[in-house]
Amino acid sequence: MLQLRRWTIGWFLAACVLVVPALAEEHEHICRYCGQDHSLMFAAATESGDMGLKYAPDRVVDVKHIKIDVVPDFAKRTVAGTTTLTFAPISKPVEQVTLDAESLDVSNIESSVPLADYVLTDHKLTLLFATPLPVGEDVEVAITYSAEPKQGLYFRTPELGYPEEDTHLWTQGQTHEAPHWFPCFDYPNERSTTEVICTVPKEMVVVSNGKMLSDEVNEQGLKTVHWLQDKPHASYLVCLVAGKFHVLEDKHRDVSLRFFAQPTLAEHAANSFQDTRTIMEFYEAEIGMPFPWDKYDQATIRDFNSGGMENTTITTLTHTTIFSDETENIYSSRNLDAHEMAHQWFGDYVTCEDWAHLWLNEGFATYYTHLYAGHKLGRDEMNYGLWRDAKGRVLPQAEDSKPIVFRGYDNPWEQFDYRAYPKGSWVLHMLRSQLGKDLYRAGIKHYLEENGQSSVVTADLQAAFEEVSGRELDRFFDQWVFGAGTPKLKVRYKWLAKERLALVTVEQTHKVDDNTGLFEIPTTLRFVVDGKPVDHPVTINKEKHDFYVPLDEQPTLVRFDPEFTVLAEVDFDKPDAMVYTQLEAEDDMIGRLMAARVLGKKDNHKSVEALKETLNNDGYYGVRIERPSRSKSSAPTKRLPR
Ligand SMILES: [Zn+2]
Ligand SMILES: [Zn+2]
């Protein structure tokens, strides 16, 4: 943080104008300074690229600090204030700086160096400096404005039909809404420390990023709360929540944990807060890095526009995450809580450089939610989450030509689909399965330590894993992250009695084209012989393999990928006797699920009886709720957490 260094007239030409009035015309692109059209050359955070491909924009200046000082008007649903940006040119002197500013009504600009002019459009604010700004020298510009935000900052007030005692506002930055309430360089390849100062009626609370510096009530009965986020983060993670809230408090080590809820929902708020501390404990141990920020708050929002949003140190959540005691056994906030908190490391501490690499945020949040479920409720719960993701969301999209890292989107929201979330999660699960838990954890820790407080691309993650493991992972990332689709595998088994050999044939039967090639898949064939498992590791990398495995006796069961480590549609047509054996394998929940699914498609008497027994008595609820002939996941459709 820097104090504003006022420009004094003796330093520069007296003709320079320090404070200039706003330009009235909207959609203005012609520079009043030199008469040229700079709309393309200087667009601040507009994604660049030919052929419709999207890339992060160049950074002309390094934005070091953003100080936002605002006063909301709850009755008018407007906001007014001053945002002060501190920035310095990165590699060459800069005469103009363009900021993202969505329909901000700018009334005044002050600068620490002489400003010649500025150009305001509906989407951008271009600052024209009297002389080029030298490389590396900090400049401060204070922009005073008002706004009636249609995005970015939202009100929930009695005028909109909400209970008066629940009145609140919140901000939503992702993907590009932040400039609707403060001017900034709005792209995740830029990070700044931030400050939020907000003045509200004294009965309200104000929550924002980082640590609270002060909370004072003035003579007019207005409260001003001052927050500082002193580790840099992306502009889309800046958040302000203000209004009437009920608060619950907890603590993990010295990290304050709070849960803010609408007063009318406060009665049941504790249900949705109950896992937060244990999730943080688990993540610190699993990730190998302490919670990287000052505190962790969650706030419910009435009619939130998604499930949750992982703003740095202040997650916003849909109010529907609060559930009453009566529904507790069928409803839980656990997954949403775990998803958003995982983002504090993956998304906030390291942030995808552009939306093409979004899976580095969402794949991690999805996978660590499964890891927490496994930690809390056991391995079956984790595998069942992976199963539902695979069967219900990823494998049905096997023919999609879009890879996880994809630049051909029109709107960044198109990236927030099955590729970033469950497929990204599966990529991590396959890495963990192939490297082993310890090496995987070492890779994750290395990735965070090398890239903390900066933006990341997939190559950063790959490099971290390669450095700790010595493995070359180009093929792995090419096929799963930069290539599209998922493998379809046809598996067949035959017992060669005379030779005492099991023959397992594996074919890759998916369509191979420019987007999707043959996959390299290390996995295991498991034979149950005389009640004992015999594991045979294999690597599939050709169109067809014949694996001959010598065994003492004919196996009673053959399993392909018994540890559930491969994202693939597996068609394994095995003898009925084996399917019945598999349906009763107590330590193999995924095997039982698969067997139930196979039997559900048959209509003979024996299958129906066996399935009936399973649906009534299986030890795991996911198997019990498996329905005959169901091909879709039984997972309920819910709004995605962000
Ligand atoms: Zn110009
Ligand atoms: Zn998310």
Automatic annotation (TrEMBL):
It catalyses: Release of an N-terminal amino acid, Xaa-|-Yaa- from a peptide, amide or arylamide. Xaa is preferably Ala, but may be most amino acids including Pro (slow action). When a terminal hydrophobic residue is followed by a prolyl residue, the two may be released as an intact Xaa-Pro dipeptide. GO terms for molecular function: alanyl aminopeptidase activity; metalloaminopeptidase activity; peptide binding; zinc ion binding. Its cofactor is Zn(2+). It comes from the Bacteria. GO terms for cellular component: cytoplasm; extracellular space; membrane. Keywords: Aminopeptidase, Hydrolase, Metal-binding, Metalloprotease, Protease, Zinc. Pfam families: Peptidase_M1, Peptidase_M1_N. Residues 65-237 form the Aminopeptidase N-like N-terminal domain. InterPro entries: Aminopeptidase_N-like_N, Aminopeptidase_N-like_N_sf, Peptidase_M1, Peptidase_M1_aminopeptidases, Peptidase_M1_dom, Peptidase_M4/M1_CTD_sf. One of its GO terms (biological process) is proteolysis. Residues 274-480 form the Peptidase M1 membrane alanine aminopeptidase domain. Its EC number is 3.4.11.2. Belongs to the peptidase M1 family. PANTHER family: PROTEASE M1 ZINC METALLOPROTEASE (PTHR11533), PUROMYCIN-SENSITIVE AMINOPEPTIDASE-RELATED (PTHR11533:SF174). This is Aminopeptidase N. It comes from Aeoliella mucimassa.
